[in-house]
Specification:
mainly beta, Immunoglobulin-like, three-stranded antiparallel β-sheet, 8 strands, about 10% helix, about 55% strand, globular, LtfC/p132/Gp6 beta-sandwich domain-containing protein, LtfC/p132/Gp6_b-sand
Length: about 100
């Protein structure tokens, strides 16, 4: 009998944080079309911190200062989720681990 699956299966995710360094990441839209203006995206850490991306045309951009990176590192998160929110709909696009480099 074939398997039946409901719901989204988030992609694997690894977020690498380096002590004393800023965090920079850009995610480009696969189809080259601009992200919807109503879209927001954020990294949600298991320790409770959240980093929002800036939506810039076809790019989702994270630019996090090293001071905020230090706060997240100190909280020792083990898991991280990438959520997209479009209007009232939250969708988990990716789920994974946090790797901390000293």
């Amino acid at each position: 009998m074939p398997e039946v699956q409901f719901g989204a299966d988030p992609l694997p995710l690894k977020v690498i944080l380096t002590s004393g360094a800023d965090f920079r990441q850009v995610v480009q839209a696969d189809d080259g079309e601009p992200w919807p203006e109503s879209l927001s995206a954020e990294l949600r850490f298991s320790s409770g911190q959240t980093w929002a991306a800036t939506v810039d045309g076809t790019d989702l951009v994270w630019a996090v200062d090293k001071a905020q990176v230090a706060v997240v590192i100190a909280a020792e998160p083990s898991r991280v989720d990438l959520f997209a929110v479009d209007g009232t709909s939250d969708e988990c696009w990716a789920r994974g681990v946090v790797v901390i480099c000293a």
